[in-house]
Amino acid sequence: MALSLVADFELGKDVLPWLRAQRAASEARGAGSGGADVLENDYESLRVLNIERNGNIIYTYKDDKGNVVFGLYDCQTRQNELLYAFEKDLEVFSCSVNSERTLLAASLIQSTKEGKRNELQPGSKCLTLLVEIHPVNNVKVLKAVDSYIWVQFLYPHVESHPLPENHLLLISEEKYIEKFRVHVAQEDGNRVVIKNSGHLPRDRIAEDFVWAQWDMSEQRLYYIDLKKSKSILKCIQFYADESYNLMFEVPLDISLSNSGFKLVNFGCDYHQDREKLSKHLSLCVFTNHTGSLCVCYSPKCAAWEQITYSVFYIHKGHSKTFTTSLKNVDSHMTKGITFLNLDYYVAVYLPGHFFHLLNVQHSDLICHNLFLTGNNEMIDMLPHSPLQSLSGSLVLDCCSGKLYRAMLSQSSLLRLLQNTRLDCEKMATLHCALSCGQGAQFLEGQWRQRADLNTNRVLSDFLKIIQWISENVSACHSFDLIQEFIIASSYWSVYSEISNVDKLLPHSSVLTWNTEIPGITLVTEDTALPLMKVHSFKGYWEKLNSNLEYVKYAKPHFHYNNSVVRREWQNLISEEKTGKRRSTAYVRNILDNAIKVISNLEARNLEPRLTPLLQEEDSHQRLLMGLMVSELKDHFLRHLQGVEKKKIEQMVLDYISKLLDLICHILEASWRKHNLHSWVLHFNSRGSAAEFAVFHIMTRILEATNSLFLPLPPGFHTLHTILGVHCLPLHNLLHCIDSGVLLLTETAVTRLMKDLDNTEKNEKLKFSIIVRLPPLIGQKICRLWDHPMSSNIISRNHVMRLLQNYKKQPCILLNDMTMWMQNL
């Protein structure tokens, strides 16, 4: 399936064998059943409680005496550790441990078993405790109330030394959040105790909210409160020094007034009614390192015939609401919509019905989103149990106790690309696959030298995408497949090098998409931008603020295009034809830029190329390359403030080099498939079906690059012309030359004159070629052809030049005519 769920942790494999080993060791010592005792039928009590920021997993189970036992699985060492045990038959509701593993916070409720007496304090439903566990010592009651309480320790970035103060969040069902400051001290060696446990300082950081979400990785608290029936999303950022700031607030056009109370990612909530889960609203916030901020929302569903969900692209200033109809709906359906954070994408899926991949970076066009329905491999292979999306593309299946790492599978996307029929699906799948491999960086020589199996697999998948494109250049009718591949791959190849690349470089050749996507309808609306509550930004917040500033002020958008290069290049070519060219230093600087691009390209590709490209001057393409370097560099300098000029120059060289490299690889894929050899470069051979296939792909590459005005590798036009002479009848060949499909280069025509003898057929070809050459090249070529016709052409051109100078210098003309007649 295209969405790959790789298990990072499983209770049954990573914890249960350890518990059995502990039990066996305890029995061997004759100690009977201990705190780690677990029987075969106790597996149902083993469940995950929480996942902390450092990846450690807290779980619980009940031993054969009904005692509640807390354990921790260290994701780094892959080792288990017993934390604490309550000798009472209670249900654990929420749990968290501090980063030093010296304090344990837990909320417990009365056991649901009938006949059990109330183990809690009289009149309380939930008991929240703070326990010293290094070693096990005092227990402090934080709350004993008739409402549920969730607990969560804050994890500072600095973990090299223990902090004297720990901070604990308490989230109440009564709609308030408190932060406790817990001072600790070491006594008698390594013994850690709570100082002033009788009075722990606390701050109330939020109240009157109806929904909250915890981001364990980034230590952020999102919550929504209602102001005049409006839903206001707010975010609090906690820092390494345990301080915190309210970062922003933004109104959301959603109705939460009758939705009750809901928390997201505050541990695993096993107390939700699974029967009601499918009809409850779903709401979650996703971010990634690029500064994106998405709010995913699905309202309460009364009937399953039609389902609606919305994604608020806060960083883009708009929202998109999708509606789809379901088929074969079960009246007792208990599965709700699931939202998953996949970094550059958000996945929305309803098990057994549909799967929707939404592009977070480029949300403008619906064709960049992948929507699949019905009996599809991707849909059928996804888990049907409710999933909890955590930070860093982690997904928790609370029912099975498995923690997955969700990622898009490039090889599976390739299979989908090969089998799908709709242009919109091809477009979306191609972009998904390229984002997985980060584009053409996998073609670089440094990647080729690595022996890492995963890297080789991704490289192989990327080359398969190139092979598929070379074999299916006409597969799409709504867009040019080669154009889209070149632009998208070049974009992803430098994505990690440029912080604002999505604002400065095009990611797609398609600017508009008016075709509907089958099975889904879409409504796009502008949304209010967040009101930022701070004035100094770092890290993620700096990128988010940059995105918001771009939405406010970037009119028109900053995307680079080659229109200026087109005009300047045409001017230079026109000047060359008339013999009037501007300063030598200007042209030399442009050609030097081209030399840098070629050198950069050759340095990244250590293996010899199959095709004879990059082996000749081709001044026109070098001019185009050099002009693009100059213009793109100026574009970056205008918009990338604070970036060193040298770094910008290298980024420009990398981008254009990779663009040319992609063209070379598309051509090489076709060359390799058809097993062409070096003798193709000679004109005295006849064209084959294989040569015609390569000629066709080269023509499509030329069409794609011409409309975008992109440079081609030097030698491309020479090879294209040679294959054209091999494969086309004379009248078709001449038509291609006259219409600009074939460009006659000096290298190609020189080789034609030398390789072909002077048969009647070849004479006709040579003459037809010579009369179509620019005057300067034509004069050189005529001197290579030992034939009366070439002598005639040379004489005629000479007389024409003399006559053109007659009015200016008649005396010189008479002397030149006399000398020319004597030579005859």
From TrEMBL:
**What Pfam families would the database entry show?**
GSAP-16
The secretion signal range is none
Question: Which GO cellular component terms, listed alphabetically, does the Swiss-Prot or TrEMBL entry include?
Answer: trans-Golgi network
Which ranges carry the Gamma-secretase-activating protein C-terminal domain? Answer: 660-767
CDD domains according to UniProt = GSAP
Q: What are the GO BP annotations of this UniProt entry?
A: positive regulation of amyloid-beta formation
Q: Which PANTHER family match?
A: GAMMA-SECRETASE-ACTIVATING PROTEIN (PTHR13630:SF1)
Record's protein name? Gamma-secretase-activating protein isoform X6
Q: Which gene encodes it?
A: GSAP
